[in-house]
Amino acid sequence: MASNAIDAGIKLRPNTEDLKDLGPAFESRWNEYFADAPDKPVVWLGIASGHVKPYPVPPRKYLSLGYHTEYAASRGRVCITSGTDPHAPLNFDSGFLTEASDLAILRWAYKFGREIVRRMSFFRGEYPEGHPAFAADSEARCGEVSGPVEMSDPKIKYTAKDDEAIDEWNRRAVETCWHSLGTCAMKPRDDGGVVDNRLNVSGVQNLKVVGMSICKFQGHSEYDKKSTTLRM
């Protein structure tokens, strides 16, 4: 009861070889946002003691590995549908994985994390229902094994079909994290935000908003481009 079962985690940035694996879908995002910012991790990986997905599995010992993007490029939207009825349903679109770069990151994270786990001393294989649906003749297929691979063993080789299976798995399994940030983007309307540099809501009079994403955009490049700085 004193543990949340997440016993270890790591924040990662891709090296030169990893960038090749991430492919052209991530190249522009890397060059624009990460290449000159060594303090920005691309992805988080963490392990949990147990099977964390809410569906029945055979009784045995499990370890789960989760991963998420640290700076997702995809953006959603939420809009009111009535100016008079506060109970009217919202027009909501999560925007999950609308940017190809986010899908590439999750694909790379899956592969990276899998290589770590299959080298752990207690590794005895993978539960197929908790993984992408790889073809029966694929090197990436999942199943039980007698023990871990050697640290020096080569990585799993994934085909284009395998990558498609991983992408489909991530599309079906993706969900928001518990620590979402930036419901209202604290940046100019022209950049997809909702406020000016005095926190006035665009298109509305006498209303200011301070969302948690102000932590991210305080003095950040979105405002540096306009030679202004957010002030609390």
UniProtKB/TrEMBL annotation:
Pfam families: GMC_oxred_C
First and last residue of the signal peptide: none
Residue span, Glucose-methanol-choline oxidoreductase C-terminal domain: 74-215
The protein's required cofactors: FAD
PANTHER family (alphabetical): GLUCOSE-METHANOL-CHOLINE GMC OXIDOREDUCTASE, GLUCOSE-METHANOL-CHOLINE OXIDOREDUCTASE N-TERMINAL DOMAIN-CONTAINING PROTEIN
Protein family membership: Belongs to the GMC oxidoreductase family.
Protein known as: Glucose-methanol-choline oxidoreductase C-terminal domain-containing protein
Biological source species: Hohenbuehelia grisea
